[in-house]
Amino acid sequence: MLAGLGVNMSALTQTRYRFIFGALALVLILTIIYHQSNLRDVIAPRVGNYPDEPSQAIPYDPTPSSSSNKPSHSDATLTQLLHTVSTTSTYFNDYNVEASGFAMMGKRLQVLRDWMEASQDLSDRMNAENANTLHERIDQTALSLFPWLRDPSENSSTSLTHLRQRFKPGSKGIIIPTGQKTFRYACHLIKNLRDVLGSKLPIEIVYAGDSDLPSKHRDFIKGLDSNIETVDILKVFDDTDLDLQHGGWAIKSFAALGSHFEHVLVLDADAIFLQAPETILDHHSGYRSTGALLFHDRLLWQGAFKQRHKWWEEQLAHHTPSQALTKSRVYNEGYAEECDSGLIVLDKSRLSILLGLLHACWQNTKKVRDEWTYKMGYGDKESWWFGLELTGAEYTFENHYGGMLGDLNSMKDKVCSFTIAHFDEKDKLLWYNGSLLKNKAKNITEFNVPTNYMFDGVWEKGATKPDISCMKDATIMETSEDERKVLRKSVERAEDVDVKIEEFTTLN
């Protein structure tokens, strides 16, 4: 039984024995309640997918009865629900999830999701007192799991509710976390999106305090075009346990969570698009189906990271894999890295996605990232799919693993560059990371307009980061004239903004 709960017996102390047996007792109590009352229709995990996927039947019908009389079991059901939530919330608060408890955090978030769904389903059957009690317990539980949810300026006790109220229903937007180091690339990206591709999506530039992105830089970047705002993430979340000022990649998941947008596209500053990002939100069937679209990294270093794979398997030992995971070549064939987090697309209006995002944020808190996330993976890359997977959310990966956009080698049998290319559902170039520069690690002034691309080939990785990589053994394709036009114009706009940046730097 204990092994089935994923317990490491060798690490248990007497205190932890009491923790486990307390958990088992609670499970037993909840099981009895589940089988002896109508509560199972309210809080039990659904079989299959969750309500944001309408193909699945939901056993509980929240539609109010046409009769003015409530069902006779309604009060008892609500009482049991409130008691169960109260008891479990206290238990969660008393026994915190350790930094190594990725699977446990996933299970707790699934419980929290069930409560939130029950709250929505029963909203028309609860009086104000019961509704407030349930909402308070949900918020208290969320705060016990994620104390950084508190608004640093208000010390709010209803942080999760307050956070969700920040989301503007139906809103869509681009988020670009950036600091002084990536400021130039963020400016290039904005020009690529606005001037070349004509994207009208609002943009949030997210930073971690004035030292990360001073006010003069913020004013400059807002002046590049209309509908660009800047957001200090330190004013959204309590940074005590986060240290986002020194967290590097860690800011990205919190930028997504704290944004006012419901549909968020989180972009690395050095990303470049070949198509307007609106096409993803409006037309990508995978995103529209699951509410989460991720992009694959390169297929590299097969069999080289055995400890990482062993750890993944341990965390997922008692988990039903998603469709995305069953198709993963990285997870199933032992390659190194699954996700290129240069673009993450999420629909936060779906509870399953929101709770998966919360897990990803937890993975990027200082203690967890220092001890586990960034040791078991490269930066934030794997935290996105891992968070969604462990909380039971469905998500979509692009069809291909990371491709190559660059130029032919001297033998004209390989495509070589310093970028990773990504494709839409019709295998057309969508975006790539690595910036408009030919090799930003060696030459910060030489731009390049790639002529060829390839996917589903074999990667030949450069020995070090500044060394060129190639792809071979697949069909070599030429970029279209329209694609080259987009890239040429993007380079022109980048060169123009570089002049302004140089003037800005000289004056300041």
Can you walk me through this structure?
- With 508 residues, the protein is of the alpha+beta class.
- It is built from 18 helices and 18 strands.
- Strands 3-2-1-4-7-6-8 form a seven-stranded mixed β-sheet, sandwiched between helices.
- A hairpin with an 8-residue loop joins β16 and β17.
- The longest helix is centred in the C-terminal third of the chain and has 27 residues.
- The radius of gyration is 24 Å and the shape is globular.
- The relative contact order is 0.10.
- The N terminus is likely disordered.
Chart the SSEs and their pairings.
Elements (H helix, E strand, L loop, with lengths): L13 H23 L3 H4 L30 H21 L7 H20 L6 H18 L13 H8 L1 E10 L5 H14 L6 E5 L7 H8 L5 E5 L18 H8 L2 E7 L3 E3 L4 H6 L1 H6 L1 E3 L11 H10 L7 H4 L2 H5 L9 E5 L3 H13 L2 H11 L4 H10 L5 E2 L6 E5 L5 E4 L2 E4 L5 E5 L3 E3 L3 E5 L4 E3 L3 E3 L8 E4 L4 E2 L2 H27 L1
Parallel strand pairs: 1-2, 1-4, 2-3, 6-8
Antiparallel strand pairs: 4-7, 5-12, 6-7, 9-10, 9-15, 10-17, 11-12, 13-14, 15-18, 16-17
Helix pairs in contact: 1-3, 3-5, 4-5, 4-15, 7-18, 9-15, 15-17
